Amino acid sequence: xxxxxxxxxxxxxxxxxxxxxxxxxxxxxxxxxxxxxxxxxxxxxxxxxxxxxxxxxxxxxxxxxxxxxxxxxxxxxxxxxxxxxxxxxxxxxxxxxxxxxxxxxxxxxxxxxxxxxxxxxxxxxxxxxxxxxxxxxxxxxxxxxxxxxxxxxxxxxxxxxxxxxxxxxxxxxxxxxxxxxxxxxxxxxxxxxxxxxxxxxxxxxxxxxxxxxxxxxxxxxxxxxxxxxxxxxxxxxxxxxx
Length: 242
Fold this sequence. Notes:
Elements: H1 3-6, E1 13-16, H2 25-35, E2 39-44, H3 50-62, E3 66-71, H4 77-90, E4 98-101, H5 116-137, E5 146-149, H6 155-169, E6 173-178, H7 192-198, H8 210-221, E7 231-235
Parallel strand pairs: 1-2, 1-4, 2-3, 4-5, 5-6, 6-7
Helix pairs in contact: 2-8, 4-5
């Protein structure tokens, strides 16, 4: 089978959390999967993202794709269940094939200034959210080629889940870790933290693009990566943290 066919997601159902911004990483992943045949759920949480999430879904449908929009806070147990339930109903299916835990909070606050409220908020979305979504999706038959987590904080869970879900359900579990990426909510190019990170890249010394992150998800979610699991995959231009 050709690589082109292996990158087809025809008949697959995907949930991409935090995908309500067309110019964000989640939105780019939703478009990339839908373009290749997947039925995608666009998830958002804030009022400001509602019209853009709807616009993104309509643009996918206008090009012949399948998309639905579900509002929900992934860190809330009932809303996580609702996200899965409404996805199944929208696409008349009994299983979720691809789950991309993209929703995240990434404060630029220096460590010594981080407040307890910020720590709670980050944990709620970045760690508790993916855990709740996995719990909600697994009973629905999640058995795709991939479960993708975009949070370095989930490295240990990525390894643990790859063993547990791989042996039991045949699911591969990988963590995709973007470097500094240009989105509508990213800091300006001259922000000190951006400049510091760009100085550590091994390639062009630029921000990554949302399309480059989406391409990595396509590869990891495809049958071409069926023997890759439990891995932390940096998509960062070779960002050197040492």
